[in-house]
Structures are given as structure tokens and as C-alpha cells.
């Protein structure tokens, strides 16, 4: 018994030193990242005030954009989403909806709502996607193209869309996404400023739950009344207004949300399009772009623009959110393992030597260590080894610092574009920042472990995402 107690004491002490040291380093990195994010946000706010997108609308130099929308069983939101995309302010636009073998009425909704007719033309042979059954063009909106194909997954659907569009840029958009009308005018700015080097840009994703949407436009911004979607509002604010802005400051952006990203069509085709054997195609495609362009010694930029906004419906049920987050974690581990040669490799510049290693430490190892900590602490208490000072340091470095980062996201929102403008909404956001780190954060750490076990077991299922549909003015 004495030997067991001694072994447990040694393990607890070693784990405590490792965990505290790791989180101290991660938090220093986050502080630096958030400081950079403030500088980047300040510059973007100034630029948006002096250079509004509607002034540029008359420019004859806007490159054409194909909005590619993969859709699988999206009948609850597909009509509203497509209407939103057709209403976008942009000079040359094509909307390509890819029905990826839906088993519900997604295709019928599109046919009925937009008066689709079959296009009498052969599909190009070289499209790297599952069999395409039919291609439709809207008789009401000439810019709307609908592709009906065998189910092959989101990556497969994106490939079908980006190979069928003839536009020089394509915007990958989730079918449950509502885009602000001027969003593309802002998102395309990096391609106007650096036409020869810009390869990708991403915008902000916000939570649409409880907001009122009419004719594809968010008319009234509201915070969800239920706790789970509200907590995700907080997550999204911190991720976009802090993490990605900071990475953009050092040209180290490695993730553009699959719900709203703009890419050079020819460059993505050059690397073979989206991989079919990944479940987080948005993370993988950006890392592959970095890797490919660095290996070919090409000058390039991947940008994040905080002003363009897209709105998405987030899960309101814990089991659905659990499936989503486990999939995200599995995909993150898979992408890191696939591109492990980039880690600490100077050939890949700042992305390989700093950004990816920090991402692995913070988002992968850090979450797993934190989850393990919630198991070790009760064991240490049971064996009478729990040190009060260590317990307080661990809580401050995880939960306490997490609340600070969440409130930082609220500050960035209020200081910049301020979509949540009432004092009551700000107070609720601050409260959600506490809830996110007390209870939800701990749950997310255990979900990371479940995601890791699923990855090790070879689980590749996507998991169904249940949609309630957007709130309209008629509700």
C-alpha cells in the first residue's frame, strides 16, 4: 500500500508540474495572440470606416465568384440559405448548389422554390466526384445552378461544384449559412489588394439561432434564449475576434471555416481539390495550401477579414453538439498526423515552426491534459495528495484564464462591429463567458478524449446534424 501511495504521489506530482508548465506556456501564447488581434482589429475597423464596400461596387475589376453550396438533407434551411446567396451584392456571381444524394426533400425544395429546369449539356469527364445525375438551371435566377449527384460526402460535393464553376474564385459555404449582403465585397478585398499572391480569405461566422431572418437577410440580431446555443455564441466570438485575427497579423492563418471561405479556384484545383478521406476538409485544405505553396517556393497570402459576416444555425441539443465536436476533434488529429512533417520544419516558415506546434499544444494536447486533470485531481484528493496551491493554479490557468479570454471576445465585439448592441445582450454574453468555462469547458475536455478514442478506433462517420430551421418574420 505504501508503494502504491508513493507511486500515485510521484505520478500526481509529475503530472502537476507538466500540466501547470504547459498551460502557462499556452496562456502566454494566447496573451500574445490576443494582443496581436487587438492591433489587427483596430486596423480593420479604421479601414472599414474609410473604405466602405459599396464604394468599390462600381469597380470593373472584381473577379467572378462561384458560391459552392454542398447540401445533404438540408430541406429545413436550404431555400432561405440559397435566397440569401442570390441576394448578395456582387457584380459577377454564380451560385452552385450541390445536392449530395439527399434522402429528404432538399432537391424538391430547390426545384419548386427556384423553378429549376434540367440543363442539356454533358458533364466534364474530369470532375473528381461521385456520379452526377443531373444539372439544373433556374428559370427565375439565371445565376443559380443546381447539381444532383450520388452521395460522396462534403469534400466530394465541393469538388463537383468547384470543377463545374468557371469563376476564378469560389466561395465554399455551408447550406445552413446566411451571408450578409455586402459580405463578398469585403471578403474579396485581399484578392483586389494582392491579386497575384492571395489564395484564400475567410470571414466571421456568427450564430443565427433566435435571430429573425427575412428573404435571406438577418433583420434582427438576437441572443439565443437557451444556454447551449448561447454558449456557442461566446465560443464563436472568441475564436474569430481573437484567435484568427491574431494569426492573420503574422500571416499564419491555418483554418478558414468551411461555412464561409473564399479561394482561388485554379490553385485549389492544382492541389487536387478537397481530400475525400478527411472529415474536416476546411482545416485540411488550408494546411495543404500552405504546404504546397511553401514546397514550390511561391509567395502567397491567406487572409482573415473580420467585417464580412455569415450566420449559421448551431446545435441546440447536447447529443448533436457532441457528435459535431467529436468529429471536429477527430478531423483535427487526422490533419495534424497527415501533415506532421510540417511540425518544427523551417521549410514551411512560420506556419511550420511556430503556428502549427502552438495549435497542437493548445487545441489538441492541452485539451487532453486538461481532461486528464479532472480525473487526477479527485484521485489526488482521495489519496490525501491534493495540494491547495496546485489546485488553485490549475483552476486559474484553465477556467479562470478561459473566462478572461471569453470576456476579451465580448470586448472585441463591443469595440468593433457591435452586432449585439443592447446592455442586456452584453451582460448575457459576459454570463455566457462564465458558463462556457464552468461546466461546458470540462464537458468539452472529455469530448476531446472521446474524439481521440474514436480516431484511434478508425471511426469515420460524419454524424447527422439536426436543423430546426431559421426564425422568420412570419414565426
TrEMBL record:
<dbReference type="InterPro" id="IPR029044">
    <property type="entry name" value="Nucleotide-diphossugar_trans"/>
</dbReference>
<keyword id="KW-1133">Transmembrane helix</keyword>
<dbReference type="GO" id="GO:0016757">
    <property type="term" value="F:glycosyltransferase activity"/>
</dbReference>
<feature type="transmembrane region" description="Helical">
    <location>
        <begin position="348"/>
        <end position="369"/>
    </location>
</feature>
<keyword id="KW-0472">Membrane</keyword>
<dbReference type="Pfam" id="PF13641">
    <property type="entry name" value="Glyco_tranf_2_3"/>
</dbReference>
<protein>
    <submittedName>
        <fullName>Glycosyl transferase family 2</fullName>
    </submittedName>
</protein>
<feature type="transmembrane region" description="Helical">
    <location>
        <begin position="381"/>
        <end position="410"/>
    </location>
</feature>
<keyword id="KW-0808">Transferase</keyword>
<keyword id="KW-0812">Transmembrane</keyword>
<keyword id="KW-0328">Glycosyltransferase</keyword>
<feature type="transmembrane region" description="Helical">
    <location>
        <begin position="12"/>
        <end position="39"/>
    </location>
</feature>
